[in-house]
Design brief:
Helix content: 40-55%
Structural class: alpha/beta
CATH class of the largest domain: Alpha Beta
CATH superfamily of the largest domain: NAD(P)-binding Rossmann-like Domain
Radius of gyration: 20 Å
Number of domains: 2
Bound molecules: NADPH dihydro-nicotinamide-adenine-dinucleotide phosphate
Number of helices: 10
Strand content: 15-25%
Order of helices and strands: EHEHEHEHHHEHEHEEEEHEH
CATH architecture of the largest domain: 3-Layer(aba) Sandwich
Largest sheet: 6 strands, parallel
Strand order of the largest sheet: 1-11-8-7-5-6
CATH topology of the largest domain: Rossmann fold
Distance between the termini: 59 Å
Shape: globular
């Protein structure tokens, strides 16, 4: 029976982080400056705190200076806007990230729009999305998880041009940008969403499957074409009394079955997940390079 190559996203991310650390070191010795990333966390959600801590730690390891604001849940929209604007005008900060979700009384769109387009290392600013979608234009930063997916394909020698790709999900942060990226690279892309009537039939035609629909183990082994490349973005907690925390993480793909049919597959955890932070560091470094080159002109 076929056994897919299991893509080690953790190892790949580590390699990229080391490449970034070397570039940061070079910037420091040549220009006496390092990239800076500001992370803004509102409230005390446990998952958000973990994400923010991981991002800060990754910055430190790469030599990127991290600035952070941990703000109370009841901060007003005006006060939060002021925090973002201060980072916009701080020239040691090259990237600004506001951890989502924000509390209900705050208009998240308004806050994200306030982040200067040059410092939008998440790639969520409407200007960056627009440039991603327009032919012949390029964004300053591409959303981290979608970019991480493409990087995994490239680093594993997967041909994208001319292939049939199916993306499960059409969210602003994963599905939509990843489908645009695949199209740019000359794949023929089908986007499957919650109102798509025949997802299995569509999936069976795909050479490349990107699963980002947040539905635990929805994509089963017999949905896949033999030899398909499967990237599983889904991160779903399912109850598991035998696990220490009482739950375990599974993807949107039923791994045990899919690994018998696919040519390559990412596990959950340890697949796409670690790539997201690596791409955040990459976007921050690029933003710093752009800003310092601008200074030199
Ligand atoms: P959203 O909930 O924003 O979007 C989910 C998308 O999946 C929607 O477009 C929805 O369709 C579609 N969908 C829902 N149910 C089905 C279904 N039964 N069949 C087909 N499509 C369906 O999620 P995100 O995009 O934010 O995240 C997707 C998954 O990826 C989650 O599990 C999340 O945890 C994970 N994730 C992982 C990251 C990482 O590894 N670093 C980063 C970000 C997310 P519709 O538009 O019709 O509602």
């Amino acid at each position: 029976e076929r056994q897919a190559v299991v893509i080690d996203g953790k190892a790949c991310a580590k390699e990229i982080r080391e490449e970034i650390a070397a570039k940061v070191e070079a910037m420091k010795s040549e220009m006496g400056k390092v990239p800076g990333l500001a992370v803004v966390l509102v409230g005390t959600r446990k998952d958000s705190e973990t994400y923010v801590r991981n991002k800060e730690r990754a910055c430190t390891e790469a030599g990127i200076e991290s600035f952070s604001s941990r703000l109370p849940e009841d901060i007003s929209q005006e006060e939060l806007l002021k925090v973002v604007e201060d980072y916009n005008s701080n020239d040691q900060v090259h990237g600004i990230l506001v951890q989502l979700p924000l509390p209900k009384h705050i208009n998240a769109e308004l806050i994200l729009d306030a982040i200067s387009y040059e410092k939008d290392v998440d790639g969520f600013h409407p200007m960056n999305i627009a440039r991603l979608a327009l032919k012949g234009r390029s964004p300053l930063a591409v959303a981290c998880t979608p970019q991480g997916c493409l990087e995994l394909l490239d680093r594993h020698g997967v041909t994208i041009a001319g292939k049939r790709a199916v993306v499960f999900g059409r969210s602003n942060i994963v599905g939509m940008p990843v489908s645009l990226l695949l199209q740019q690279r000359d794949a023929t892309v089908t986007v499957v969403h919650s109102r798509t009537p025949n997802p299995k039939e569509i999936c069976l035609e795909a050479d490349i499957v990107i699963a980002a629909c947040g539905q635990a183990e929805m994509i089963q082994g017999d949905w896949l074409k033999e030899g398909a490349v499967v990237l599983d973005v889904g991160t779903n907690a399912v109850d598991d009394p035998t696990a220490k925390r009482g739950y375990r993480l599974v993807g949107d793909v039923k791994f045990s079955e899919a690994v018998q049919r696919a040519g390559m597959i990412t596990p959950v955890p340890g697949g796409v997940g670690p790539m997201t932070i690596a791409m955040l560091l990459k976007n921050t470094l690029q933003s710093a390079q752009r800003s310092l080159m601008g200074d030199a002109i």
